[in-house]
């Protein structure tokens, strides 16, 4: 069954305080989206204004000037809470999309709950059309081991595409230092596949900067980060990374797969 459930802190209409309660709800803003032409023009203007290396807070400030909070969403894997915290500083109550694939580490779910409780955000659990059991019945058990690309398409790419339909802009935590496939990540771009503006305010950050910001601001963090998991995905497809390895070497190890499909 398709599912989208929101964890909305605070009362409707107000700035969410810290703390949250889970209630089922529809995802996406109530207001109508601007046209594709308008949004593309905004993306081009933002890219020109911010350039290659504007600080994250300036990138988010540009978004706050040009987009309503309810028209924006933050994608978060719950490895850390830096991106939701940065965005919530200027767009309190922003929707934070968590792709609940059904395969996450327990620590990842614990981090999601801590983010919902401690930050002024709205957690939106985005679920695939099928449960893991339903997918096993339809596709065969452990699809991730036989065809990880299709598993990601069913449990990540399609649910995210569906959930983004009501928004004008989404934030991601993609960084250029994560892998060779991400070295050219812009701060602002037009996402043709999903039909909205895509913003990567932390593109120029390093992993060490991310960890330092999290520690300095006492943010929730996935404990697996300190256990050799600099990039955290689904449990069956993620392993610890050895010293000196690419930060994403632990994802789909032993295959030629390097991306889940969300950012390509």
From TrEMBL:
Keywords from UniProt, A to Z, are:
Cytoplasm, Iron, Iron-sulfur, Metal-binding, Oxidoreductase
Q: Explain how, and how many, cofactor molecules are bound.
A: Binds 1 [4Fe-4S] cluster per subunit.
Main location per the UniProt record: cytoplasm
Catalysed reaction per UniProt?
[thioredoxin]-disulfide + sulfite + AMP + 2 H(+) = adenosine 5'-phosphosulfate + [thioredoxin]-dithiol
- In this chain the Phosphoadenosine phosphosulphate reductase domain maps to 73-240
Q: Where is this region: Disordered?
A: 1-35
Q: Which cofactor does it need?
A: [4Fe-4S] cluster
Report the sequence similarity comment from the record: Belongs to the PAPS reductase family. CysH subfamily.
Which protein is depicted? Adenosine 5'-phosphosulfate reductase
Name of the gene: cysH
